[in-house]
Amino acid sequence: MERQNDHKGPVDGNGAAETTQIEVRNLIKKFGRKLVLDNVSLRIEKGKTTVIIGPSGCGKTVLIKHFIVLQRPTSGEVYFDGQRVDGLSERQLSDVRTRIGYLFQEGALFDSMSVAENIMFPIKQHFKHVKWSQVEEVVKAKLAMVGLDGFQNYYPANLSGGQRKRVALARAIALNPEVILYDEPTTGLDPIRSDIINELVLKLERDLGVTSIVVTHDMRSAYKVGDRIIMLHNGKIIADGDADHIRDHPHPTVQQFINGQVSEDDLAVLRMSGAVATSQFLPRDFQK
Ligand SMILES: Nc1ncnc2c1ncn2[C@@H]1O[C@H](COP(=O)(O)OP(=O)(O)OP(=O)(O)O)[C@@H](O)[C@H]1O
Q: What one GO molecular function would you report for this record (predicted)?
């Protein structure tokens, strides 16, 4: 296997282009004067699971939102399956977006809709005149994939947190996407429910051949699902490789993060602000 070391940016050559699902080149994102992504270049391989880790606020969500152009670059380029997408209109983007399922932190289920209606929602948005009888089997199959067939008539309020995430995942795969973006899929779940989600990520990669991109603070999940783990820090990629590469990484910031230690910089901020709970700065799985 080629991957073990930190990548220094795009690799040239046709072979790489064929296996690349998403690419960003020299991506810079600023909000006002705040620099969030600092010249990030990255290729995401088809059919693999890439995990993005890093401290709170380092730009993980902003980065993956660029992959579906929910955020536009300040400068730099974004490609999906070889097509440059960062300059496309919203209308042109809708085709690209149907090829990507996403499970965002804020992308909660619609409380007023049943489980089945939630899963039908993206299908109805895309195929305007579809009838329930036409999609009933699709809804059933998607729910079966996440182990929740039979829950069609439940409402989100009657489901546990883990079940809600699984319904959201069934909705994310409703249109058979080639890519699934997961933003903190295990946050707020206990280790057993987290493992169910991890297994689902692996199952969807295995059974559907999807390309998965998982943003997480949870190192257990990262090691379990990631073919490749990328760490972002101060808007830059500081580590990129397989689980062993990340575990043995020489960069002190990587070691502090994966071992849940508080850095001297964080402590200085805490002392200055008089804040108390150092655990706020730890990866979330170390807070339990
Ligand atoms: N629409 C926006 N306008 C202004 N600032 C933004 C916007 N979206 C994100 N930011 C800022 O960009 C930075 C990175 O945010 P992002 O959500 O990507 O962090 P993150 O690494 O995903 O953090 P967390 O792990 O806490 O979810 C943060 O400082 C955030 O406040």
A: ATP hydrolysis activity
Which residue's CA lies nearest to atom 7 of ligand 1? 31
ipTM over 0.95: yes
Structure tokens at 197: 């989600």
pLDDT reading at 256 higher than 80: yes
Domain harbouring 27, CATH code: 3.40.50.300
Distance from the first to the final alpha carbon of the chain? 35
> Does residue 77 fall inside a structural domain?
yes
Q: Whose CA is nearest to atom 6 of ligand 1?
A: 31
280 lines ligand 1 (CB under 6 A): no
In three-state secondary structure terms, 269 is helix
Out of 161, 176, 191, a domain closes at 176
Ligand 1 atom with the smallest distance to the CA of 54 is 21
- Statement: the pTM of the whole predicted model exceeds 0.90: no
**What's residue 284's pLDDT?**
44
Task: Give Rg (Cα) of the chain.
Answer: 19
Mean of the pLDDT values across residues 263-274? 64
Is the model's pLDDT at 287 over the cut of 90?
Answer: no
The answer on 75 and 87 residing in a single domain is yes
Show the domain range for 113: 109-176
Please indicate, yes or no, whether residues 168 and 117 belong to a single structural domain of this protein: yes
Mean pLDDT of the chain: 85
Kindly state whether residue 288 falls inside one of the protein's structural domains: no
